Amino acid sequence: MSRNGSSNRPPTTVELLAERPGLSGGATGWRMPQQLQSSAASAPAKDAQAVFDALDALPDSAATLHGIRQAGSTADYLLNHCRQDAGGIHSLSQESRSQLAMVDNVFATLHAQSTMSPTLKPVVATLQLPLARLALLEPCFFLNQEHPARRFIDKLALLASSAHANAPPMAADIARIVDNLCRSYGRDNSVFESALVSVEQLLRQQASIHTRNLEQVLRTRQNEEQLQRAGSDTKVTAGAVDEDAIVIREAPVALRDRINRTRRLRRWVRRVEELQTGSWLTWQDSGDQRKRMQLAWISDDGNRYLFVDEHGRKAVELNRVQLARQLSHGAQPPAPMDTLSVVDQSLYDTLEQVQRGLSFTRNHDTLTRLINRDAFLEQVEKTLQHARHHGSQHAVLVLDIDKFSLVNKVYDRISGDEVLLEFSRLLAQLHSKKISSARLAADEFAVLLVDREIHQAEQIANRIRTDIAASSVNIGGENVTFTVSIGVASIFDFSPGVDDIMANARSAMLEAKQLGRDRIVAWQQSGAEVKQHKKQRQRSRRALEETLESKHFTLRAQPIIKTAIGGGLSTTGHYELLLAMKDGNGNLRSPQKFISTAERHGSMTLVDRWVIKEAFRWVSSLMDAQKVVPRLAINLSGSSVTDDAFLDYLFEQISEFGVGTNRLCFEITEAGTISNLVKAADFVRAFRNIGCKFSIDDFGKGVASHQCLRELPVDYVKIDGSFITNIHHNRNDYAMARSINDLAHFLGQETIAESVESEAIVLQLREIGVDYLQGWGVGHPRPLADVTLELASLET
Question: β-strands 716-719, 750-753: how paired?
Answer without folding.
Answer: parallel
